[in-house]
Write a structure and sequence with these properties.
By secondary structure, the chain is an alpha/beta fold. The protein contains twelve helices and six strands. It has a six-stranded mixed β-sheet, sandwiched between helices. Helix 2 crosses helix 3, helix 7 packs across helix 8 and helix 10 runs antiparallel to helix 12 (269-282). The longest helix is centred in the last third of the chain and has 17 residues, at 249-265. The protein is elongated and about 70 Å long.
Length: 283
């Protein structure tokens, strides 16, 4: 059984789900290893994403753990058998692993929900806006480092602008639509792009206005990516020392409720477009 030096977030998620199934069955790693006819080290490697797992072994694992959730098992089998080497692999060794993980999770998502508070969502950003953002946040980066990040972000937009887009819903605070990350001309182009994309059938854009009373959700920025089954959803949040991937069912349900609450506080789609149009005219 070959091992991986650096498993992706998706590979680690598969292992984490297998560990949760084992724990739900009340089995220690040693007992699970005995049932599968492998060593406890192999079980640990599978559950950490360091080692892969075949469809036959995965289905045997599910049977031994008495898991009867067929949709979940099929989804895990699909994850285990996926050998996709997407466009993001071109950036391996060029950008941090988290950038590749984000692109891979985007690629496999069934939907995406964003809450953006201080910046226009990445999938909506123009090249000029993204370049200004990366240059300001990372002033020590030489120009070619900034360009790698900009080009990577532009390619990620394929999930909503490509030939087979996924449903995308975002709630944007008015602050993000007023902070001029770039100059006035570039910022007008950025807001116009948001307005243009908001008219697509698979995209819903809502805005939280400054004047909203009793809104304490300014720290609620997040990305929620849909999995093949709800249990395999992923929430992504910015953390002090990098990107945090949230995947426990309790936490996922918390963020589902948070998104519904933020969405419920926002303007409806038509009034949101009207506000964006007003902000463009003010520039």
């Amino acid at each position: 059984m070959a091992t991986r030096r650096q498993p992706t977030a998706r590979q680690m998620r598969l292992g984490a789900e297998l560990r949760r199934l084992r724990e739900a069955a009340g089995l220690k790693a040693t007992a699970a290893a005995a049932l599968l006819g492998v060593s406890s080290v192999q079980v640990s490697q599978i559950e950490s994403g360091v080692a892969g797992v075949s469809e036959e072994r995965l289905r045997r694992i599910a049977a031994n753990y008495t898991c009867s959730e067929n949709e979940l098992i099929d989804a895990l089998v699909a994850m285990a058998g996926d050998r996709t080497r997407g466009w993001w692999e071109e950036y391996r060794g060029v950008l941090p692993a988290a950038y590749l993980d984000l692109a891979e999770l985007d690629h496999h998502a069934t939907f995406r929900h964003d809450v953006a508070v201080t910046h226009v969502p990445g999938l909506f950003q123009t090249e000029t806006y993204a370049r200004a953002l990366f240059s300001y946040m990372n002033p020590e980066f030489p120009p070619h480092e900034v360009e790698h990040r900009v080009h990577h972000r532009m390619r990620r937009k394929a999930i909503i602008e490509g030939s087979d887009p996924i449903p995308y819903e975002t709630v944007i605070h008015e602050a993000a639509l007023r902070i001029r990350v770039a100059g006035v001309v570039a910022f007008r182009a950025q807001l116009s792009r948001v307005l243009e994309l908001s008219e697509a059938e698979h995209i819903n854009v809502r805005v939280i206005p400054f004047g909203l009373d009793d809104f304490a959700g300014a720290g609620g920025a997040m990305v929620h990516l849909g999995g093949p089954v709800p249990r395999l959803d992923t929430v992504i949040r910015d953390a002090p020392h990098g990107t945090a991937f949230v995947d426990s069912e309790a936490q996922l349900e918390h963020f589902r409720k948070l998104f519904r609450r933020v969405k419920g506080a926002s303007l409806d789609i038509d009034r949101s477009r009207d506000l964006i149009h007003k902000l463009i005219k003010e520039l």
